[in-house]
Design brief:
The protein has 314 residues and is an alpha/beta fold. It is 38% helix and 15% strand. The protein has helices at residues 35-44, 50-63, 84-98, 115-119, 135-139, 160-169, 185-193, 205-221, 246-254, 267-270, 282-301; strands at residues 71-76, 103-108, 143-146, 149-153, 175-180, 196-202, 229-234, 259-263, 308-309. The chain has a 9-stranded mixed sheet with strand order 3-4-2-5-1-6-7-8-9, with helices on both faces. Strand 6, helix 8 (205-221) and strand 7 form a beta-alpha-beta unit. Helix 2 crosses helix 11 (282-301) and helix 3 (84-98) packs across helix 11 (282-301).
């Protein structure tokens, strides 16, 4: 039917122009802490207790530990649906901020938002086209976040991309973090040679059971393997499981030798967009540094003494 057929005889024909679809405005980044709390934190920072200052200094020292060779850390969601990429991005930023060598964050999750989106990198990079001849040639296939941090994506289903792509270039980085899924061939290949492992799970009873089964499996394969693991209980969705007992769960998991860190719910992270360090909560910032320190310590030393930390302390 043409336009003239839609009007009575003699009426002028009106040529309709297609109306462009409405474009949703990007959501404005929301800070995790309210304005009053952020201002108060800034004002009171010079007057922090001596113990808090000493703890911050000790955390910084642990994050700056030198590595004789590049350390590889696998970050896995165990199939619980937790956002392993955002935890990897946060830990990578924490390490890159304080370390004097380079940090690489690899996205093998195959999900959106990607690691590059979370880190705010212009390009995601592609491990499939990397040239390991030298660092300059490697950079051509990576996405640069800042002077000390790079990111790259990897095909979750290609196990050969680990030996052919990631392993040759990891020598250029002090720490390489790989975010992957539980059933990915690439993640499985990384896990076989990883120096430590971070399990990121949602704060639910079902996820806790999954962690228990995985730690039992690791202990069956190698007695000290659980001690090389950091379990991050991630409150991705506030009170998703009201019956979840955080304190009891972390005590039970810690008995395996794994470290346990609880990341509190963070409004900024929950937005699912680029994570801006200045907008994440103070508690989140502190806990992320602890995750980074625990994972790095296990990657360097093998099996240190397990620690249990939540937002409220040990």
């Amino acid at each position: 039917m043409n336009a003239s057929q839609t009007y009575p005889s003699g009426a002028p024909a009106v040529h309709a122009h297609p109306v462009p679809p409405a474009v949703a405005a990007p959501s404005r980044p929301v800070p995790a802490d309210g304005w009053v709390r952020r201002v108060g934190r800034t004002v009171l920072r010079p007057f922090r207790p001596v113990d808090a200052v000493a703890e911050a200094i000790e955390l910084g020292r642990r994050l700056q530990r030198p590595t004789s060779t590049g350390r590889r850390i696998l970050v896995d969601d165990l199939g619980t649906g937790a956002d392993a990429a955002v935890v990897t991005a946060l830990v990578a930023r924490a390490l890159a901020h304080l370390r004097h060598d380079r940090v690489l964050a690899v996205d093998a999750t195959g999900r959106e938002p990607s690691m590059a989106d979370r880190l705010g990198a212009a390009e995601p990079g592609d491990l499939g086209g990397v040239d390991p001849t030298g660092f300059e040639s490697v950079c051509g296939s990576l996405g640069e976040v800042n002077d000390g941090l790079w990111t790259v994506r990897a095909d979750p289903d290609r196990a050969d991309a680990y030996s052919a792509g990631l392993l040759p270039i990891s020598r250029f980085f002090g720490v390489t973090l790989v975010a992957g899924g539980a059933d990915g061939a690439f993640s499985a290949a990384v896990g076989a040679g990883a120096h430590s492992r971070v399990m990121v799970v949602r704060a639910t009873r079902e996820s806790a059971l999954r962690v228990g089964r995985e730690l039992d499996s690791l202990a069956g394969a190698r007695r000290d393997e659980a001690g090389r693991t950091v379990v991050v209980v991630f409150d991705e969705r506030r009170r998703e499981d009201p019956g979840f007992d955080v304190a009891r769960t972390v005590r039970i998991i810690a008995e395996s030798g794994a470290a346990v860190v609880v990341l509190p719910h963070d409004r900024h992270i929950a937005q699912g967009t680029a994570v801006l360090p200045r907008l994440i909560g103070e508690a989140t910032h502190r806990m992320v540094q602890l995750v980074a320190a625990e994972a790095l310590g296990r990657a360097v030393d093998g099996v240190p003494t397990a620690r249990v930390r939540t937002e409220g302390g040990e």
